Amino acid sequence: MCSIFFKSPILDVLEDLIEHLVEKSYLWKKSNPKYLNFITKHRGYSICEVYLEESCDLIGKSIKESKLSSIEIKVLSIDKGYEIINFPKPYYIFQENDKLMVYGNTKNIKNKFY
C-alpha cells in the first residue's frame, strides 16, 4: 500500500480563490510576472510526498520499470531517512519506506497512490 497526503477539497478551493486574487493584483503582476505565468500554466499539476509502504506495487521496481512518466508523474527526490537522492536515475529501485517527492498530474497521482 502506498500512502499519499493531500489537502482537503475545501483547502483546494480556498487556495484557488487566493491564487485568483493574487493573480489579479497589480503589484504581483509588476513584481513577479514569470512566476505568475508558471503557476497559471500548470493547473491540475502538483507536488506531493508519497510514502512507500510494504504492500506498494512500486517496491522492487526501478523508476523506469514503474512507467510513472507515462502517466505524467516525475520523481523529483527520494528521502531514505539517512540520505536524500535528488533527481534519481531511472535505474533506482524503489524500496519500502522510501518517501518520494513527485510532480505530476494531480488526478494521476491520486489514482496511482491513493
Automatic annotation (TrEMBL):
Residues 33-114 form the RCK C-terminal domain. InterPro entries: RCK_C (IPR006037), RCK_C_sf (IPR036721). GO terms for biological process: potassium ion transport. GO terms for molecular function: monoatomic cation transmembrane transporter activity. Coiled coil: none annotated. This is RCK C-terminal domain-containing protein.
